[in-house]
Amino acid sequence: MKQITPREIERNSFAMIGDDWLLITAEKDTKVNTMTASWGGLGVFCGKDVAFTFIRPQRYTKEFVDTSDTFSLSVLPEEYRQQLGYLGKVSGRDEDKIEKSGLTVSYDGNTPYFAEADTVIICKKMCATDLHETDFIQKEICDKWFAANDYHTLYISEILKVLKK
């Protein structure tokens, strides 16, 4: 993989995140966990290139992201769609889902990512905030997306590095 700047990412971020999906991956106590995500974005915040990620409170990966300074966003080619679906449905609390997926964990320093990815974004958390029903101006969003009142935590993270195949 070669390193590029965040501004050299050629893929449309709406397609990369919303259509292609990505894996949010972090390590805690020498164990790695990941989850599939299709919500988020790339942008600028406080003069830095950043990634915006959202994680529901019940997701096991949230514990890993919360205890780590860094995490990765791995975008895999279409041929891995089945693995992405599996990693989004099964909890790492219940089984070693990464091993069962057949994907390979690699590292950039202390930050895990997937070797099969064609784009990897290494992120360092800047801030996090829990969303609440009262935060939503368009109230119909709450009924549609948060019927279980499981509002996400929004993480804004500096993009430290982008790796591309």
Report on the structure:
- The protein is an alpha+beta fold.
- The protein has one domain: Pnp Oxidase, Chain A (Roll), CATH 2.30.110.10.
- The chain is 21% helix and 42% strand.
- It has helices spanning 13-19, 60-67, 81-89, 97-101, 140-145, and strands at residues 2-4, 22-28, 31-37, 40-45, 48-55, 70-75, 105-108, 111-114, 119-130, 153-164.
- Strands 1, 2, 3, 4, 5, 6, 9 and 10 form an 8-stranded antiparallel beta sheet that branches. Strands 7-8 form a two-stranded antiparallel sheet.
- Strand 4 and strand 5 (48-55) form a beta hairpin.
- The longest helix is centred in the middle third of the chain and has 9 residues, at 81-89.
- The radius of gyration is 15 Å and the shape is globular.
Topology overview:
Elements: E1 2-4, H1 13-19, E2 22-28, E3 31-37, E4 40-45, E5 48-55, H2 60-67, E6 70-75, H3 81-89, H4 97-101, E7 105-108, E8 111-114, E9 119-130, H5 140-145, E10 153-164
Antiparallel strand pairs: 1-10, 2-3, 2-6, 4-5, 5-10, 6-9, 7-8, 9-10
Compute the gyration radius: what is it? 15 Å
What's the CATH architecture name? Roll
Number of domains: 1
Q: Could you tell me the strand content as a percent range?
A: 35-45%
What is the class in the CATH system?
Mainly Beta
**Strand/helix succession:** EHEEEEHEHHEEEHE
Going by CATH, the homologous superfamily would be: Electron Transport, Fmn-binding Protein, Chain A
Shape by Cα distribution: globular
